[in-house]
């Protein structure tokens, strides 16, 4: 799969990638009663310092780059669904929390691991091309970084468009 | 290159190439849902497949109710009933509100066994590593999928080998002190995303309840699961309860590749305590003495076995609960409760002034026994002391012996000094 879009690099004011962004910073527990995915986007990252107005600034197709252990904490599915709601096309992180990773893959939301990407020199606003088969991430300014490719399971579930659709295909 | 224990178990349950970092499909032996998460599993299955959904294997699928048992509020009562009706229609066995903590029921009844794979909606199911089973807690979508297909996917983790050095500990030091000591050594991210193999001469001599205590807190070390090679005694138990004479456990190859090897010296192990608000905020009890204790909880999947209550009863048989301290005891399962009744331990606890509840997660999860109020200090034998988990108060984590000594003195007290002083009297 190929992705192309404008990136948001989740950094601190000093420009370092933020690590350990937990599910309360992504989708705070005060919104957990929200079950309509169409309405979840407005709350995305509004509890992460410096990124409170992210939902208003991002556009469909954008790509997000985050630090280590993104999505640590609780198992809430809304922390994935709020990005689907905003039509973020791809989420790249140095690494993901284990449960977050499962939730994203199971709901056919594209995520890509890129350990070490923090030092690569990508900046918010760059447009990048990503090839999920090779893991290559390249910006129009020719910054190049090698992430990890999608796993087979991830491709299976993505192309079936979700875990349960995949189960149907398994039975065929 | 050889393979670690988790790789061997995965190889027996998958046709994909098993290598750390690879995501593979696994065939599951057993899946279960508890009263927390279970209703969502049912709703998801019915919304995706309709009410006549066919499950992969109802005989290897279970409900285990342990969170709020019996239900003390209407939403939980409705949710449990929803699961019961679904189970009845599909021919699934329910371990109902009288049974106790699901993971412990699985061990007692042989729903899991060494070398098997068990997934469910309880995030502490990795406790089954204590008996050599790959147990894993997952979200309701994952478990609904497992009910439907009998399969799940998993990323093969790297393994850390933890080797304990030194002589085995002795009363009043217990497995909980070993566990907190290990957490103190590794920290809350020490095993992040990895499996652990616990090894060393003293590990082989541990009995089942001690192994359960140790493996129950791998979650708090950030790990996926902590395996202990089953002893002959444990293998014999599972051969008996499963009726399968061939139950055995795959061994790690001698040339298996580990992420790293940690050596932990336990020769001078003292009673340990984890101070609020984090499980890895561990120190010698000696360094924490003096603070007042308002409440004590003995139980949970970490310390709810017969032997845990026996250890506490050694104290309660000689000293009553201190005036004004609320002491709550919750056996892990109905089987544990029955044994404690038969051998007189329940009477000992009762006579000392302990409140005794029916088995389950009560006291640990927000069940029926023992939430704490703001400012209330509780000494607990469970596995998490985050604010809110057991109430608004401050929770300290310690062994049943430390908890019992605090219960009779009304303060945080080092059992070693306490027992020495009592000897001298
Ligand atoms: S006792 Fe506590 S940690 Fe253990 S399974 Fe029950 S709720 Fe979870």
Descriptive notes:
Chain A has 6 helices and 7 strands. By secondary structure, chain A is an alpha/beta fold. In chain A, helix 5 crosses helix 6. The relative contact order of chain A is 0.18. The model of chain A has no long low-confidence stretch (mean pLDDT 93). Chain B contains 15 helices and 18 strands. Chain B has helices spanning 5-11, 38-49, 74-90, 102-109, 140-149, 175-186, 201-204, 208-216, 232-242, 285-288, 306-316, 334-342, 345-352, 400-409, 415-424, and strands spanning 23-27, 30-34, 61-64, 93-95, 117-120, 134-137, 151-155, 159-165, 195-199, 225-228, 260-265, 272-274, 282-284, 295-299, 326-330, 355-356, 377-380, 394-397. In chain B, the strands form 5 sheets. A 5-stranded parallel β-sheet of chain B has the order 4-3-2-5-6, with helices on one face. A 5-stranded parallel β-sheet of chain B has the order 16-15-14-17-18, covered by helices on one side. In chain B, helix 2 (38-49) packs across helix 5. The longest helix of chain B is centred in the first third of the chain and has 17 residues, at 74-90. The A-B interface holds A 69, 75, 77, 98-99, 101-103, 105-107, 151-154, 163-164, 167, 170 and B 16, 22-25, 48-49, 123, 138-139, 141-142, 144-145, 148-149, 151, 153, 155, 192-193, 224. The complex binds iron/sulfur cluster.
Report the CATH topology name of the largest domain in chain B: Aconitase, domain 3
Count of alpha and pi helical runs of chain A: 6
Domain module count of chain B: 3
Per DSSP E runs of 2 or more residues, the count of β-strands of chain B stands at 18
- The CATH class designation of chain A is Alpha Beta
Average per-residue pLDDT of chain B, rounded, comes to 95
Ions, cofactors and other ligands present here are:
iron/sulfur cluster
CATH topology of chain A: Aconitase, domain 4
Order of helices and strands of chain A: EHHEHEHEEEEHH
CATH top level of the largest domain in chain B is: Alpha Beta
Name the poorly predicted regions of chain B: none
Compute the CA-based radius of gyration of chain A: 15 Å
Strand order of the largest sheet of chain B: 4-3-2-5-6
Question: Can you summarize the main beta sheet of chain B?
Answer: 5 strands, parallel
Assign the CATH superfamily of chain A: Aconitase, domain 4
Structural class of chain A: alpha/beta
Distance between the termini of chain B: 61 Å
